[in-house]
Write a structure and sequence with these properties.
Elements lengths: L16 H13 L16 H16 L5 H5 L2 H20 L3 H25 L3 H15 L2 H4 L7 H15 L19 H14 L7 H19 L7 H20 L4 H25 L9 H14 L1
Helix pairs in contact: 2-5, 4-5, 9-11, 10-11, 12-13
Length: 306
């Protein structure tokens, strides 16, 4: 017999009649093997709400919980956490207050799921993780929790980095200056972290014009590599990489996160091209190279409206 584990985080009195009917039929046929008795309550404080979420996550991971949730690994949940963070970012960029609340909840869900997974292997792991981050925050903010003085946010960063190195001993390996840059970072994020680490030791452009010039230089080298024979096509790939690296450096120098900047551009392109697609369909214009002039006309109109 197919075992279907079902659970409910809602009390009986707030379930719909249709859902009650479904549960009754499943129970009669033997499909409903077990059901966790848990009553959802609207909480009014952060600590109570967080505890309820953590409790629910624990139930989902229990033997009577959800097969899919039990099969998840920290690696998988970490990926979900990244996805949900970007969905939260979308809601922030769209100024969608309701969406922000929902997506923030999903971010917290995945964080709690990771906490639960560590608790399952070591009952004190979650407590230790929370204690460590609280202790670290206090240690790295002596201008808040002690008598050290700072003039601005730039000095705050200097204090933070000095404590990491001089107090916590978190420095690079002797033979690898970038040993503390996570190897699992995607290329765009890794380029940004590499450049930020270099900046910390003063190896940076004295002014922004130098960064602009570097971007132009790398663009010129791409054009030169494009003229080379196909048998050394890897040179073109390398030069394109250098151009991207320079563009990331420009983002970093100007105080913008390159991943967020690119994410916004991706969203803008999707929005505008979807509008073009809809208008072209309405006007009977096929999306093809032959109709490029018409598509350009629609594109410029959409840009102007935005």
């Amino acid at each position: 017999m197919l075992l279907l584990y079902m659970y409910s985080i809602y009390s009986y009195n707030i379930m719909s009649r249709a859902l009650h009917s479904l549960f009754s039929r499943l129970q009669q046929t033997g499909i409903l093997i077990s059901m966790i008795d848990f009553t959802y309550e609207t909480k009014t404080t952060i600590d109570e709400a967080l505890m309820q979420l953590f409790t629910i996550v624990g139930l989902l991971r229990s033997d009577q919980g959800c097969p899919w949730d039990r099969e998840q690994s920290p690696k998988q949940v970490s990926t979900h956490l990244i996805d949900e963070t970007y969905e939260y970012l979308d809601a922030v960029l769209c100024e969608d207050k309701e969406g922000q609340s929902e997506e923030l909840g999903d971010v917290m869900l995945n964080a709690m799921m990771l906490l639960q997974m560590h608790q399952e292997t070591d009952a004190s792991a979650g407590i230790e993780a929370l204690n460590l981050v609280c202790e670290k925050l206090i240690r790295r903010h002596p201008h808040v929790f002690s008598d050290q003085k700072v003039a601005n946010s730039s000095e705050v960063i200097d204090v933070w980095n000095a404590i990491k190195v001089n107090v916590e001993g978190k420095t690079h390996q002797k033979d690898d200056f970038f040993s503390r840059v996570p190897a699992s970072l995607p290329p765009l994020e890794m380029a940004n972290e590499i450049q930020k680490k270099i900046r910390k030791v003063g190896f940076d452009w004295p002014e922004v014009q130098g960064v602009f010039d570097k971007v132009q230089e790398e663009l010129a080298e791409v054009k030169t590599a494009l003229l080379k024979p196909d048998d050394i096509q890897e040179d073109l790939e390398m030069e394109l990489g250098d151009l991207l690296f320079a563009a990331v450096n420009l983002c970093r120098y100007l105080g913008c996160n390159p991943s967020v900047a690119l994410h916004r551009s991706n969203q803008k392109m999707r929005r505008r091209f979807n509008a073009l697609y809809q208008r072209a369909s309405a006007e009977g214009i096929a999306l093809s190279q032959e109709n490029l002039a018409s598509m350009d006309r629609l594109w410029e109109a959409i840009k102007e409206e935005e």
